[in-house]
Amino acid sequence: MVEIKGKYGFEPDYATPPGETLEETVESLGMTQIELSKRTGLTVQSINRIYKGEQPIIYETANKLELVTGVPARFWNNLEAKYREQLEKIKELDELNNNLDWLKIIPIGELKKRGLVAKNSKQSEQIRDALKFFGVSNVSAWNKIWTEPKVAARRSACFESMPGHAATWIRQGERIAHKIQCAPYDKNRFKEAIAEIRKLTVEDPQKFGPKMTKLCAQAGVALSLVPEMKKVPWNGATKWLRANKAMIIINLRGKREDKFWFSFFHEAGHVLNDNKKKLYINDESDDPVEVRANDFAASVLFPGNNRQIIPSLTTKSKIKIFAQKTGLSPGIVAGQFQFLTEKWKWYHGLIRKFVWNNK
Question: What is the C-alpha R_g of the chain?
Fold first, then answer.
């Protein structure tokens, strides 16, 4: 997912007004300000302000200067545009330098490691890259989106303690999801997709990954697989990007297949049943909405009374037979057995470990 390589050298610290070039040009022609004023129709005061960069060279003025000096109007227009652009960069740099403390809450090192921002040495460049990653123009805008109480309150305690890390993980999911072409969201089609995805639990990640993503996209749901981050203790999250496109983010925290699949169906429950205006975090809280999403995941994986049978599966062969009958991976059944019986050391060998493919 490397998107940026190297530096772009953003550190303007001065700007030369086009008036200086105009003044040199006029002097080379042996012309005074008063004569230039008469030839162009501009006041001497206006010419003096243009020399100092206090007054812009507008298109009309550039045309007049072409007629008087012989220098094309486009030259003056380009010079003026570059000057104003440079002034804005200087202004931006000052603002960036005034927000260096923001870098302390953003995991800039992790962003560099993942190739999501350039490996710049200048802090001002790092801030600019981070703002671009988040899709905001300044730190104030970032705060309005990610840390305002009315926003954070509907998310997770992690947003209060580590908002920079939390926002970074969610934002990675957003950027991936925005690139996924999805059909308009269709609730019935997503229900069908969930049923088909359940069948994929017996396959290896290399096979089920692309199929899973495609099935979700066809139903209007973008599936973002984002590597877990330190200080972000979540298994997944759900957010609506727009009215007809939902996003599910999943990681491999714990690397266990049972946790991966339960997390996905948990988030799918949020898509089907909960408010489109909220961001849902699977942080294993006892919030009623999260509990309901857990119940939904359990109902998908273990329909009917299947879940009640699991604690009685006291041998590996019984786990495998049950898994085959219910169309699940043995590892999912083994993980559920551990959860329901609290016999955490049982059946570890049946639970597959998923790892990120960095190729």
Answer: 30
Task: Report the run of H or E that residue 280 belongs to, with start and end.
Answer: strand 280-281
Where do we find the tokens 């879940």?
307
Nearest to 255 by CA among 331, 330, 196: 331
Render pLDDT for 168-193 as a digit per residue (tens, 0 to 9). 999 999 999 999 999 999 999 999 99
**Which CATH architecture best describes the domain 18-97?**
Orthogonal Bundle (1.10)
Using CA atoms, how far apart are residues 87 and 68, in angstroms rounded to an integer? Answer: 28
Is CATH 3.10.450 the classification given to domain 180-301?
Answer: no
Q: How confident is the model at residue 118 (pLDDT cuts 50, 70, 90)?
A: confident
Question: Domain residues of the chain, as ranges?
Answer: 18-97, 100-146, 180-301, 303-359
Q: Which two tokens stand for residue 319?
A: 């786990």
Q: Model pTM?
A: 0.79
Q: Which two tokens stand for residue 151?
A: 């926003």
**Residue 214 vs residue 95, higher pLDDT:** 214
Please give the C-alpha separations between residue 174 and each of 223, 224, 226, 279, 331, in angstroms, as whole numbers. Answer: 10, 8, 10, 12, 30
C-alpha–C-alpha distance, residues 218 and 182, integer Å: 6
DSSP letter string, 38-90: HHH---HHHHHHHHHTSS---HHHHHHHHHHH---HHHHHHHHHHHHHHHHHH
Measured torsion, CA atoms of residues 290, 296, 298, 304, in degrees rounded to the nearest 10? 150
